[in-house]
TrEMBL record:
Keywords: Oxidoreductase. GO terms for molecular function: oxidoreductase activity. This is Zerumbone synthase-like. Belongs to the short-chain dehydrogenases/reductases (SDR) family. It comes from Nelumbo nucifera (Sacred lotus). SUPFAM superfamilies: NAD(P)-binding Rossmann-fold domains. It comes from the Eukaryota. Gene3D superfamilies: NAD(P)-binding Rossmann-like Domain. Coiled coil: none annotated. InterPro entries: NAD(P)-bd_dom_sf, SDR_fam.
């Protein structure tokens, strides 16, 4: 089922003031397009109501795109579209339903006449307290795979249906650092995210012939609602500020933290003509975290 939301001409209040919200969150005060690298493009973003998807929607609009947010969150999703302004629409879409993914794609084409960018970003972490592999609930595993993997494949399939005949388009998928190393997330999440670069390479092998590019992004940990909710289970007594600071301190790159905007700008690059010869790639946005491990030599004066 599709639900589109009409937008007001001006930014509307969101928890007080949408402009302040975006200013605080992303460092910008307005979501009005200033033109740019995605001028005239139409983008569909699954999981675009919140977190990394919402940040990408904002950056895409800044670069001149029109954006359709496809999400199951019928409270936050329509409000995000309102806040983003007239270049944004919301459609209800559960990526586990192929029919709903197909409808969302068809909505983009019916509404804007084209689909240039498909960002398969919706994802869940699965149970917050990861059980031992010996106790793994396979129904939970299936659920994570349904959303993170099958949902991504459905998005690729239906984007290709439009992009292959058009002989152009850019498909993006959200992977994770959990898809590069074991032990960074629960088993089902890790398995699901390892699958994404594989899907991207497999699809790239065919889509290349049709002038369609496909890439994925592997972000480091960002304190989005997905991460904050998980951390709140691990640290029930802790306040949001403490959790945010703790998460922001997990990286390796001195003087920087991974923010939504870092991932969103990687997405802008891959979606745009700047990346016109980049396909099948996994763009890791992790401040070097998965590049190295250090040998734990004993400290000389302790031996
Ligand atoms: N935040 C991080 O640290 C991080 C790091 C690496 C990768 N990721 C990945 O980034 C993506 C976005 O996550 P986020 O951190 O922005 O989390 P988030 O929870 O803020 O956003 C995820 C969005 O996906 C939507 N969603 C969930 N199930 C859906 C479904 N079945 N159909 C459609 N929409 C659905 C949610 O409603 C939500 O709006 C996920 O794929 C996640 O695995 C996140």
């Amino acid at each position: 089922m599709l639900r589109s939301v009409s937008r007001p001409r001006l930014l509307r209040d969101f928890k007080g003031n949408a402009a302040n919200f975006f200013l605080n969150r992303f460092g910008y005060a307005s979501s009005t397009s200033r033109g740019g690298r995605l001028e005239g493009k139409v983008a569909l973003i699954t999981g675009g109501a919140s977190g990394l998807g919402r940040a990408a929607a904002y950056e895409f609009i800044q670069e001149g795109a029109k954006v359709i947010i496809a999400d199951i969150n019928t409270q936050v999703g329509p409000q995000t579209a309102l806040d983003l302004g007239p270049q944004a629409n919301f459609v209800y879409c559960d990526v586990t339903s192929e029919a709903q993914v197909a409808e969302a794609v068809d909505f983009a084409v019916a509404h804007h006449g084209q689909l240039d960018i498909m960002y398969n970003n919706a994802g869940i972490p699965g149970p917050s307290i990861p059980p031992s592999i010996a106790d793994l609930n396979l129904d939970e595993f299936d659920r994570v795979m349904q959303i993170n993997v099958r949902g991504t494949i459905a998005g690729i399939k239906h984007a290709a249906r439009i992009m292959v005949p058009a002989k152009s388009g850019s498909i993006l998928c959200t992977a994770s650092i959990s898809g590069l190393m074991g032990g960074l997330g629960p088993h089902p999440y890790t398995v699901s995210k390892f699958a994404i670069p594989g899907i991207v390479k497999s699809a790239a092998s065919e889509l290349c012939r049709h002038g369609v590019r496909i890439n994925c992004i592997s972000p480091f940990v960002v304190p989005t609602p997905l991460v904050m909710d998980q951390m709140a289970v691990f640290y029930p007594g802790a306040g949001r500020e403490w959790i945010t600071e703790m998460v922001n301190g997990l990286g390796e790159l001195n003087g920087a933290k991974c923010e939504e905007v870092d991932v969103a700008r990687a997405a802008v690059f891959l979606a745009s003509n700047d990346a016109k010869y980049v396909t099948g790639h996994n763009l890791v946005v992790d401040g070097g975290f998965t590049c190295f491990k250090q040998l734990r030599f004993p400290i000389p004066d302790q031996i």
